[in-house]
Write a structure and sequence with these properties.
Subcellular location: Membrane
Bound molecules: 2-acetamido-2-deoxy-beta-D-glucopyranose
CATH topology of the largest domain: Immunoglobulin-like
CATH class of the largest domain: Mainly Beta
Number of strands: 18
GO cellular component, one term: membrane
Low-confidence stretches: 4-19, 199-227
Shape: rod-shaped
Order of helices and strands: HEEEEEEEEEEEEEEEEEE
InterPro entries: CD2/SLAM_rcpt, Ig-like_dom_sf, Ig-like_fold, PKD_dom
Keywords: Glycoprotein, Membrane, Signal
Oligomer: single chain
Organism: Maylandia zebra (zebra mbuna)
Largest sheet: 7 strands, mixed
């Protein structure tokens, strides 16, 4: 009976310890607040590590060796670590190691991923007149910089990928929107495509918008997820 209880405890402990991994996405220049989510009562030791470097300690404060020493603070009450003016190089694993009444608790690992802000996408359109069925074959190409995913809305359809091909009937008008996104933000570009017999052409409206995706994590150690 005891060994079953012990086994169960070990399993639960392992699940809790290994699922404490979270990913936080931020843009260059943002501020991140790293919080372990663990209870703060009775904490006798607590430190934050970045890779192998101890960057902040409950008693000592922000470490001299920290690559963020001039732009970080640790909170003595809840042991959160705040890092400002993030750069791409700050991406990496932060580990929170702590003890309650001199007994070590499971470490919490938070992976920080800092992204380049997304540039406004550029839409290129080329179309060919198809005489046989009086329509235009339209080639849509969306481009921007950085590591992003591409979504198109063509009429009422949603398509994934930077390049699309589409057929528009003569005198037909179709609105196309390219949305590029990473985990932090998204940007869109919009155009109206028109097909006519004389020459296939496009009408530019040049509208675009910016939407910031809210970066949130849930608060329970066994269930962390980020949007
Ligand atoms: C530290 O955290 C506590 C609790 O979250 C908060 O009330 C306090 O203002 C913070 N202190 C600083 C210096 O940010
Ligand atoms: C025009 O012809 C192409 C094939 O040549 C076909 O895929 C497309 O559906 C046709 N479009 C219309 C509007 O009939
Ligand atoms: C892109 O399109 C896919 C498939 O329709 C969808 O699941 C996803 O949420 C879209 N992403 C964005 C950022 O709109
Ligand atoms: C395309 O977008 C414009 C501007 O938003 C709108 O006035 C027009 O009705 C749209 N056309 C179609 C076919 O949806």
């Amino acid at each position: 009976m005891h060994s079953i209880v012990l086994l169960l405890w070990v399993c639960l402990y392992y699940v809790e310890a290994s699922s404490g991994k979270r990913v936080i996405h931020k843009n260059v220049g943002d501020t991140v607040e790293l919080s372990s989510g663990l209870p703060t009562e009775g904490v006798t030791a607590a430190l934050w590590r970045y890779g192998q470097i101890t960057v902040a300690d409950k008693d000592v404060g922000v470490s001299k060796d920290s690559p963020f020493k001039d732009r970080s603070e640790r909170n003595l009450t809840d042991f959160t670590l705040t890092v400002r003016k993030l750069t791409l190089q700050d991406s990496g694993d932060f580990t929170f190691v702590s003890e309650v009444n001199d007994r070590q608790r499971p470490s919490v690992i938070i992976t920080l991923q800092v992204h380049e802000p997304i540039a406004k996408p550029d839409i290129k359109i080329s179309s060919t007149w198809i005489p046989s069925n009086e329509s235009c074959k339209v080639l849509l190409e969306c481009s921007t910089t950085g590591d992003v995913s591409y979504n198109w809305t063509v009429g009422k359809q949603t398509l994934t990928g930077p390049r699309q091909q589409y057929i528009i009937r003569q005198d037909g008008e179709t609105n196309v929107t390219c949305t590029v996104s990473n985990h932090v933000s998204e940007k869109s570009a919009f155009q109206t495509v028109k097909c006519s017999k004389d020459h296939s052409h496009r009408k530019e409206t040049g509208m675009w918008r910016v939407t910031e995706v809210v970066n949130t994590c849930s608060a329970y150690i066994s269930n962390y997820y980020c949007l």
